[in-house]
Design brief:
mainly beta, 5-stranded antiparallel β-sheet, 1 helix, 10 strands
């Protein structure tokens, strides 16, 4: 489990099967991962999602928001970068890894939420 520092969402990442979920509210939203983006070398183990596009309203304008996620699991500390087309590029977000999720009741409950 990767928690966003000072945030209210988390990510559940399974490197072995190249899958990730964004935990939002009471469900896990699957993040579509790019097949060729996962590097399995221990020193560079990173996973990148496919580009996710949504039409959103910003004030009175309708814009296409494109987002992409990159999880760098071998970094110390683990890095999560988010691409946001409205903000104009990649940004690193502050995260912390919950390594004891399997024995932490609250964390395990989040990991076991149904998919959205």
């Amino acid at each position: 489990m990767i928690e966003i520092v000072d945030g209210d969402t988390s990510f559940l990442v399974d490197e072995k099967i190249n899958k990730a979920w964004w935990i939002v509210g009471e469900c896990r939203r699957p993040i579509p991962m790019a097949k060729s983006s996962s590097s399995k070398k221990k020193s560079t183990n990173s996973m990148t999602s496919k580009v996710i596009s949504n039409d959103v309203r910003m004030g009175s304008r309708q814009v296409e928001l494109r987002q992409q996620f990159r999880f760098s699991m071998a970094s110390t500390p683990v890095r999560v970068d988010v691409y946001n087309s409205v903000r104009g590029g990649w940004s690193q977000i502050d995260v912390r890894v919950k390594k004891t999720c399997s024995i932490d009741v609250a964390c395990r409950r989040l990991a076991e939420l149904p998919e959205c």
